């Protein structure tokens, strides 16, 4: 099969990418139509046409990046067949990066914004539920005896660790990786 | 021994209590000197005298309540001598309350405010470190084989779960309690 080149990003994609890049740079409230238009190289009028309001654009951009952050790293890790190895790889991908990573800043900005935006809150909650379910199904298929407690504990611990690391950038992820890997290991036949 | 009545709260204590009660009611930025003075029944001039600025008062009130929330519940639980029973009791105390509990709203408001307040961030991080250390020491004394991974994992998972529950009030704590209790149980001799 020949490699097919990706199509160029659509205007809508360019607008969403520009908004997502701006959230960690200028903060949630600083993402204005004017700034997004400048960054995306489009006329600010087309933003309204493609995504509705600037509030809606911020939500679409944030939720899309948050899903990408978690699902991308988790997807790569779950290509491993051995559950403890997969959990270790997943945690290394999620918890060992630079705490000034723009994706983590975007996550924190979004959680802050969700305190005043019920729709954003519901959309982030839905992504978390999906993530938990995906991990649960994978652990079930790979022979983990109590997949629901494992999936809920891993998901909560990763979120909590990322939050704690935003407060304290020196926090060492090694003990967390050891604790969660052991949790899965003990449940294998 | 006769019961000794508690001394009446000092003016400083009344001011801090009033600010702490207002944070979940009116939001971080809504806690003004005027509102605190009204609630505490003091002249707004004395706030400056007792705690410096309103920003400093918000920080003192928030950190004191956050410490009280965690340390109180954990302290009660760690009176149990059996580690799995203590961890279960601790998690029931922390994770099964109403997600509209004013103490949880205060915690979320404080995390949001910490995104723009480095001193608040450092103070919350210091409280978390102390909590982790306390749990680590207790697990060590009670024969848990790998106390550091257990303490880090439990602390992260509780924080993450509380955060996820603010986003999704229907989240069930039972699988988390099962997962973390098992983590400790497997490490006993």
Tell me about this structure.
Chain A has 189 residues and is an all-alpha fold. Helix content of chain A is 74%, strand content 0%. The first copy, chain A, contains 9 helices and no strands. Chain A has helices spanning 11-26, 33-40, 44-51, 54-77, 83-95, 102-114, 118-141, 147-167, 174-185. In chain A, α1 packs across α2 (33-40) and α5 (83-95) packs antiparallel against α9. The first copy, chain A, is elongated. Chain A starts with 10 loop residues before the first helix and ends with a helix. The model of chain A has no long low-confidence stretch (mean pLDDT 91). Chains A and B meet through α6, α7, α8 and α9 of A and α6, α7, α8 and α9 of B.
């Amino acid at each position: 099969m020949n490699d097919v080149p990706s199509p160029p990003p659509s205007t809508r994609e360019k607008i969403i990418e520009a908004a997502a890049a701006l959230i960690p740079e200028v903060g949630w409230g600083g993402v204005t139509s004017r700034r997004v238009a400048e960054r995306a190289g489009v006329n600010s009028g087309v933003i309204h046409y493609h995504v509705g309001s600037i509030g809606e654009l911020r939500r679409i951009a944030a939720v899309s990046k948050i899903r990408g952050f978690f699902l991308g790293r988790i997807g790569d890790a779950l290509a491993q067949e051995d559950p403890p190895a997969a959990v270790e790889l997943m945690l290394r991908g999620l918890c060992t990066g630079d705490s000034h990573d723009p994706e983590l800043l975007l996550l924190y900005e979004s959680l802050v914004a969700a305190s005043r935006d019920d729709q954003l809150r519901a959309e982030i909650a839905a992504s978390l539920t999906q993530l938990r379910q995906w991990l649960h199904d994978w652990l079930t298929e790979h022979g983990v005896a109590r997949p629901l407690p494992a999936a809920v504990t891993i998901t909560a611990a990763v979120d909590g660790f990322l939050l704690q690391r935003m407060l304290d950038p020196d926090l060492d992820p090694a003990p967390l990786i050891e604790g969660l890997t052991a949790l899965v290991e003990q449940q294998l036949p």
